[in-house]
């Protein structure tokens, strides 16, 4: 008695194989489709905005006249934000990561903080905006300044910095710490001169990626009341400022009024993407150049 | 006690009498008294009573998991780095109980250095690896550090191979060179005791020979405790041997005697390769 | 012995003695050693404080809101007219906007992300995967404001040229673009889940003569299903919280509708509109953003929690 009809099986095999190879290309197409959209987005934006980028656009003050408008104020504002974010997230993020990985006893408090960080990473950025508006802008009365914006964005990316720093610290082989303790080094000496320097390239890579997330954020800044129509350049942490994403936002909205504003928005996007590209290149460079493999 | 005549120009370390090596039993540098250790619930060391003589090589042998590493890590309190560890009993190092709360682990580890199974140089230059110990103990002056680095590397038989590349990263060295560098790093803080946990198990035969020669040359000045899986190695280089089994010391005695006429049948079985 | 010739400049001092001299500073060092973890603990506590601050501000201000507007009105009314003479504060119009944009995004990101995950984990060679995955993740690195610009100035006009009934601002275009944006999230997390299915399971299927497709669909996906579902839930949570794309491309019409061609406001876009307008602190409109934000926070929090629960069950299986 034969249950399996060999001939039938063979016929079906051809069909199954063909289906397999067709769907393979469908899956590949799906993978590439996102990239195609990305390519369209980039090409379109560049072709629309590139002609508008000139020296005056980069270094000039803001103006209602599209021909004269410049975005130096927004670029400087973004740089000021970066300063605040780098300062706070690097210290707080690295410190928290060291505490969690190297000091904390693995118990209740540890898992509470850890869960909390994971949850914060999933909070929508606009909620951070509301937090910043309530605490930094109003309660502490910083107003819509660089400091308020920077602190808000710092809190926003802090979970990312902590988690990536923790991973970096965890990747340092335990044997290095043991070698240091074996020479009579104290815990902090070991951390400061062995573990941290070894993990630093990865920590920096993670922090730079978080920074590039921060400078692209728009929603929290809108909620904080950061203006886009601001002529003077920011010169300090307590100055009012505007930032590149804000500039893009308002020019996109106002394109309904003045058509050229859309081109200015595209040009500003090119500048913003360029900054992100540079930041990411630095991160990749650090990772490839300095990261130790064990 | 008398001041020992030094072989070279780093004088004036107070050391115990070490003349008449062959007549007098050496003084013990470590003495453990009913030492017990638990990892959480599981007991890894049971009532260890050992006297480890100074300025000689003591080998620890035994099957995998019998507690060899655990034992030598208690001698410089490295086991403390594992949160679940609990100890009971005493370890006397030069007369004082190192397991007491007031004995600083850092001070102990400055006296009792350690070399690990896998070479673990820091991701720093060769120079900085050796200078690390002196630096953390407060020596900052370049000229002194230079001398210490040179002397330690020479003592570790690796100076000639690295003297032209002191600023290069230690990861560029071969495994055997890395292990000798780690020994040099350990020598740089002039410990009294050097603990070695299977220091040659990750090395090729030629590197192993070099490290063995080095260990033998070090015993003139240092007390050495070495864990090894290699019975020939224990027989070749050690003066006395302890055989561990399931966290207990089965037998401890002169290496020659232990390997030729063991008193315990379990030792006999082990050195004849019948288990473990 | 070579050591004989080493000249030691510190003629009468051994390293040991030099090191001992420095010990005097030990007690200061000890205090320092104890302070470090305490200070670092404070750093770690900042994250807990952030959560407390978020909850505190959202809840206290939302309480003000609910003292003026009833729960029933907020959660059941289909009318949202915050600035009219006779204001009403129904959440449902915003909820429908959020829901619709999320559904559209998931219709795009779900299948495409899953297919990409299948390709990357089952078909692609190591080299191709190493090339494609980072490229796909570029999509997630583009700021959302850029996607907003793209939706508004490119996708909407494109849609309108095909389907003229579509309004100038509509929920379809930002929904689609948002879908593109979260493809990498679905793809990457699903791929991780599929990758951790042990190879022995695949080999079992191949051994019976199954094709890659059959293995992927009948063996790998069922085995990785909780990880895949978790990635979908996380993507949904991400879409719910997304702000700039919908703010720019979907306008601010507060209508309770499920017509994708219409302009609709989401919860996030409402918060942006009110807070960037000049609603004075203390007015009901001002407090309404806290009520909306609290709802938003709760929704995303629950989704993230759910994703974690599902993913944990998945991890227990191996
Ligand atoms: N960190 C730890 N936590 C829990 N148990 C441990 C830990 N380290 C070692 N043990 C247990 O203690 C016992 C002794 O381990 P130890 O590492 O000292 O053995 P060993 O003799 O050095 O073995 P090997 O020859 O394999 O290195 C083993 O049963 C081991 O499982
Ligand atoms: Mg061992």
What does this structure look like?
The complex is a heterotrimer of chains A (294), B (276) and C (318). Chain A is mostly helical. Chain A has 11 helices and no strands. Chain A is flat and about 85 Å long. Chain B is an alpha/beta fold and 276 residues long. Chain B has one domain (2-271): Rossmann fold, CATH 3.40.50. Chain B has 10 helices and 10 strands. Helix content of chain C is 74%, strand content 1%. In chain C, β1 (80-81) and β2 (88-89) form a beta hairpin. Chain C has a single domain (74-314), classed as MetI-like fold. Mean pLDDT of chain C is 89; it is low at 1-12. Chain C has a two-stranded antiparallel ribbon with strand order 1-2. Chains in contact: A-B, A-C, B-C. The interface between A and C is large, with 82 and 81 residues. Magnesium ion (MG) is lined by residues 68-69, 197 of chain B.
Count of separate DSSP helical elements of chain C: 13
For the record, the CATH architecture of chain C stands as Orthogonal Bundle
- The largest beta-sheet of chain C arranges its strands as 1-2
Kindly name the structural category of chain A: mainly alpha
Q: What ligands are attached or bound here? A: adenosine-5'-triphosphate, magnesium ion
What sort of overall outline of chain C do the alpha carbons produce when their principal axes are compared?
flat
Total discrete domains of chain C: 1
User: What is the CATH class of the largest domain in chain A?
Assistant: Mainly Alpha
Mean pLDDT of chain C: 89
CATH homology group of the largest domain in chain A? MetI-like
* Beta-strand content of chain A: under 5%
- Class derived from helix and strand content of chain C: mainly alpha
Can you tell me the CATH topology of chain C?
MetI-like fold
- Compute the number of structural domains of chain A: 2
* DSSP summary: helix tally of chain A: 11
Would you summarize the structure shown here?
Chain C: It is found in: Cell membrane; Membrane. The complex is a heterotrimer of chains A (294), B (276) and C (318). Chain A has 294 residues and is mostly helical.
Protein topology:
The complex is a heterotrimer of chains A (294), B (276) and C (318).
Chain A: H1 6-49, H2 55-59, H3 72-103, H4 108-120, H5 125-139, H6 146-170, H7 174-182, H8 187-216, H9 219-224, H10 244-253, H11 260-290
Chain B: E1 28-39, E2 42-53, E3 57-61, H1 68-75, E4 85-93, E5 96-97, H2 105-111, E6 112-115, H3 126-136, H4 142-155, H5 159-162, H6 175-187, E7 193-197, H7 205-218, E8 223-227, H8 231-237, E9 240-245, E10 248-254, H9 255-260, H10 265-271
Parallel strand pairs in B: 3-8, 3-9, 6-7, 7-8
Antiparallel strand pairs in B: 1-2, 1-4, 4-5, 9-10
Helix pairs in contact in B: 3-4, 3-6, 4-6, 6-7
Chain C: H1 15-21, H2 26-68, H3 71-76, E1 80-81, E2 88-89, H4 92-123, H5 126-141, H6 144-162, H7 172-195, H8 199-207, H9 212-223, H10 225-241, H11 244-250, H12 267-276, H13 284-316
Antiparallel strand pairs in C: 1-2
Helix pairs in contact in C: 2-13, 4-7, 4-10, 5-7, 6-7, 6-11, 7-10, 7-11, 8-9, 10-13, 11-12, 12-13
Bound molecules: adenosine-5'-triphosphate (ATP) and magnesium ion (MG).
